[in-house]
């Protein structure tokens, strides 16, 4: 008990200190260590155990001693105030892929002449999808995490998911329950597939086993992440025990209530149908208590939020209302027994993805098993396109968060819904069942950073943000701190009203380019759903934006030394080439059909010509992408290899795992190309050969006749 009390005390003191903010300044703004002062107001939010629902606030002013003084009612408020200063006065920021540009701030920082106030409009700003930990950060180093956490803190995120290293203590729980190491290892999935193992979608690994060295090193990484999150005013959401257990469990506990879960995405039963310990079984509560207590001992009592998803793309064994109700009631009781202050956080994805099963009646039965509304927090995962909060009357009273999903599998197309994430997010606040937070739940953090920034900015503005002025400021900061040419503003303004303004929600997430799909004479273009390829804008408008973007460097050649300009030049050009590939493909297929029907030699000549053009585009694209590490396959593979131990078999397994995720996705190509990428090396080394084989059969071989 004394140990616990001490941990609590340490946690509280850490949460009170503004040291985390000073450390951030020291890390990212060398030479400016003495330029800022941070102070908490009276009545501040004190972190993970403050149950009050308060909006965060900040004020920025110039103190008498000349420092830029930032005060606020929480560490997250202070961090957001610092961000507001850095973007609005110094024109610098931290960006995904590009890194921190804060060190570019002027030597003599401008001083605000008046006091600037800010207040969030929601108490919580949430970040991450469970699967982001596999699609994006699977092989991140501590340095990668440091950058991400600074990015998050500055943008006011105060409620992040924290999945890293979850296996370490879960393995200990399984060991204490009497499972052997072999039995446990055969349950765990590879480093690039842990998210779906955590969800109970899959079990086991193909191509190699998850090594214990990885389990330990990820746990060490998690400890650093959690300290940093806490220092920066974030309340981590930690994993709870879900009920998914190794296959051998029923052999050890023959009387336990254990069932086989449903099959996922066509995986073989060995890899799916994950064994599930029913929450009404007393062993469930026992394992929950073990798992939670181990985490509190390891990390301190730093949170009351626990993530727990039992049916994410898994069907419950029964749709019976009493069964569903008892599942949640018992899960909730077990959680509260382990942590009396616990809040159960769940992704609401299932209510959309398995809508046929999850009728309103069943959702109500399921959610109402949690007797106290405030003990649950539902993430309305896809609010910008497929909101479920209206049909569930605001999750029947459970607090919920308005989230932007936007991205499947780390797909890379340019895409956004600027109207929706401003207008609709604010409209939800005026509904009868307003959310208590706004959040980001992308499957992968692959680009389109502006739409994530925009929703997080909206969390600090009570009326829908004017996107015209937002994009203008954003562009200045993106390529700042020097003044940016008008052409850049023009380029982004074109994108704002076209590429980033999809309002046709038939296709409602980041599209992938057809060049990343298995070649076919049919079925590639205009796909909707989970492998979307639909372009929601006229390709010409993107070309117009691209021309302005490049023209900006005619007047300002120094832009080519700016990493943000380089990054976006590759990204926008990538999309221009991908769209051109689609146009060539469409022409080629038309020519093919003409040729097939009439044997026309003109049509055949067109087909041959389009084929050559398509391959040229792919080679050009590959060369373009290879100019930057963040668009290169080699970076992903090198990170995977580097995160393995010294053992060469382990290194090879990690590389295989990394390759498998972005190509075959499964031992037998179960969801092939779902997480495809336009990356240098992958385009040239994988997609090009696929298209060549396709053309060899169809054009040279005059095949494809059906
Ligand atoms: C400067 O003034 C601010 C605001 O009063 C205070 O918080 C900070 O500690 C002072 N810094 C120094 C170096 O005196
Ligand atoms: C937060 O601010 C919004 C917008 O001003 C307001 O509607 C809401 O009631 C506030 N929430 C709390 C908990 O104070
Ligand atoms: C399982 O239940 C049976 C019948 O009630 C009982 O005889 C047996 O001892 C139980 N086994 C265990 C391991 O609890
Ligand atoms: C679950 O699946 C395993 C492996 O396919 C099988 O051996 C076992 O009998 C199944 N258990 C139940 C309860 O259906
Ligand atoms: C796996 O789940 C599917 C239902 O999704 C079921 O049809 C099948 O029998 C299950 N297999 C095992 C081994 O439990
Ligand atoms: C952590 O501390 C809070 C606040 O004192 C308390 O309510 C909660 O039960 C503690 N959690 C655990 C798991 O001990
Ligand atoms: C579910 O369980 C809760 C708590 O025991 C109860 O209040 C509620 O009426 C039940 N709802 C349904 C639909 O069974
Ligand atoms: C946002 O999406 C919702 C759900 O699909 C839709 O009803 C609404 O019209 C959209 N709003 C805007 C402004 O695009
Ligand atoms: C987005 O498109 C909608 C529908 O065409 C239009 O009403 C709205 O003004 C557009 N918004 C922007 C920012 O272009
Ligand atoms: C919306 O998009 C779908 C899918 O691309 C398309 O079939 C439909 O025609 C579009 N609707 C409008 C009104 O443009
Ligand atoms: C091409 O697509 C069709 C229709 O979706 C499908 O039946 C066929 O198997 C695909 N061919 C190849 C080679 O993938
Ligand atoms: C090509 O033509 C043949 C008949 O000449 C026809 O059977 C086949 O369906 C056609 N293929 C396609 C893809 O249209």
Automatic annotation (TrEMBL):
Leader sequence segment: 1-15
* Family matches, as InterPro entries: Hex-like_dom2 (IPR029018), NAGLU (IPR007781), NAGLU_C (IPR024732), NAGLU_N (IPR024240), NAGLU_tim-barrel (IPR024733)
Question: What protein name is recorded for this chain?
Answer: Putative alpha-N-acetylglucosaminidase
Q: Where is the Alpha-N-acetylglucosaminidase C-terminal domain?
A: 470-697
Q: Which domain of life is it from?
A: Eukaryota
Domain Alpha-N-acetylglucosaminidase tim-barrel: residue ranges:
125-461
Lineage of the organism: Eukaryota, Fungi, Dikarya, Ascomycota, Pezizomycotina
The answer to whether the entry has keyword Transmembrane is: no
List keywords of the entry alphabetically: Hydrolase, Signal
Which source organism?
A: Lophium mytilinum
């Amino acid at each position: 008990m004394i140990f616990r009390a001490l941990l609590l005390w340490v946690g509280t003191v850490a949460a009170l200190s503004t040291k985390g903010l000073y450390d951030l300044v020291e890390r990212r703004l060398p030479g400016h260590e003495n330029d800022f002062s941070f102070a908490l107001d009276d009545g501040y939010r004190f972190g993970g155990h403050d149950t009050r629902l308060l909006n965060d606030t900040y004020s920025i002013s110039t103190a008498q001693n000349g420092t830029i003084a930032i005060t606020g009612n929480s560490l997250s408020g202070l961090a957001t105030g610092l961000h507001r200063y850095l973007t609005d006065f110094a024109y610098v920021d931290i960006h995904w892929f590009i890194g921190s540009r804060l060190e570019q701030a002027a030597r003599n920082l401008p001083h605000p002449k008046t006091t600037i106030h800010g207040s969030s409009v929601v108490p919580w700003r949430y970040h991450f999808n469970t699967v982001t930990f596999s699609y994006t950060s699977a092989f991140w180093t501590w340095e990668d995490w440091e950058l991400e956490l600074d990015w998050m803190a500055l943008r006011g995120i105060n409620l992040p998911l924290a999945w890293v290293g979850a296996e370490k203590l879960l393995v200990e729980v399984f060991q204490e329950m009497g499972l052997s190491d072999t039995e446990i290892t055969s349950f765990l999935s590879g480093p690039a597939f842990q998210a779906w193992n955590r969800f109970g979608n899959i079990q086991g690994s193909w191509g190699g086993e998850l090594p214990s060295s990885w389990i330990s090193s990820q746990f060490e990484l998690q400890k650093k992440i959690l300290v940093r999150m806490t220092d920066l005013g974030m309340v981590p959401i930690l994993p709870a025990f879900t009920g998914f257990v190794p296959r051998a469990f029923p052999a050890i506990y023959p009387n336990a209530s254990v069932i086989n879960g449903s099959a996922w995405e066509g995986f073989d039963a060995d890899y799916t149908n994950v064994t599930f310990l029913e929450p009404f079984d007393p062993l469930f509560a026992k394992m929950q208590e073990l798992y939670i207590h181990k985490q509190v001992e390891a990390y301190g009592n730093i949170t009351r939020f626990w993530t727990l998803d039992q049916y994410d793309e898994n069907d419950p064994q029964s749709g019976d209302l009493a069964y569903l109700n008892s599942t949640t009631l018992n899960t909730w009781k077990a959680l509260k027994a382990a942590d009396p202050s616990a809040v159960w956080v769940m992704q609401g994805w299932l209510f959309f993805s398995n809508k046929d099963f999850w009728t309103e009646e069943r959702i109500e039965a399921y959610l109402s098993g949690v007797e106290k509304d405030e003990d649950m927090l539902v993430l309305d995962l896809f609010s910008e396109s497929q909101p479920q909060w209206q049909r569930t009357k605001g999750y029947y009273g459970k607090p919920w968060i308005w989230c932007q999903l936007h991205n499947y599998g780390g797909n890379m197309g340019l895409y956004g819904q600027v109207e929706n994430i401003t207008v609709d997010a604010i409209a939800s606040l005026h509904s009868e069942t307003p959310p208590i937070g706004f959040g980001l739940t992308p499957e992968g953090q692959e680009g389109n950073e502006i739409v994530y920034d925009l929703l997080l900015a909206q969390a600090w503005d009570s009326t829908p943000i004017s996107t015209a002025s937002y994009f203008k400021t954003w562009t200045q900061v993106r390529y700042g701190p020097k003044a940016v040419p008008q052409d850049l503003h023009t380029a982004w303004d074109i994108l704002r009203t076209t590429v980033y303004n999809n309002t046709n929600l038939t296709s409602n997430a980041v599209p992938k380019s057809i060049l990343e799909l298995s070649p076919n004479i049919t079925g590639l273009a205009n796909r909707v759903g989970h492998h979307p390829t639909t372009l929601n804008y006229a390709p010409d408008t993107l070309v117009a934006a691209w021309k302005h973007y490049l023209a900006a460097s005619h007047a300002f050649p120094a832009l080519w030394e700016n990493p943000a300009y380089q990054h976006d030049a590759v990204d926008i050009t990538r999309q221009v080439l991908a769209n051109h590939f689609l146009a060539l493909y469409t022409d080629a297929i038309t020519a093919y059909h003409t040729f097939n029907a009439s044997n026309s030699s003109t049509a055949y000549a067109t087909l041959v010509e389009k084929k050559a053009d398509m391959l040229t585009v792919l080679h050009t694209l590959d060369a373009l992408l290879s100019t930057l590490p963040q668009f290169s396959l080699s970076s992903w593979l090198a990170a995977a290899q580097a995160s393995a131990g010294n053992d060469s078999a382990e290194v090879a397994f990690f590389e295989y795992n990394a390759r498998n995720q972005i190509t075959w996705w499964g031992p037998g190509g179960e969801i092939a190309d779902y997480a495809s990428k336009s990356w240098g090396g992958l385009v040239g080394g994988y997609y090009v050969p696929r298209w060549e084989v396709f053309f060899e059969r169809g054009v040279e071989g005059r095949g494809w006749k059906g």
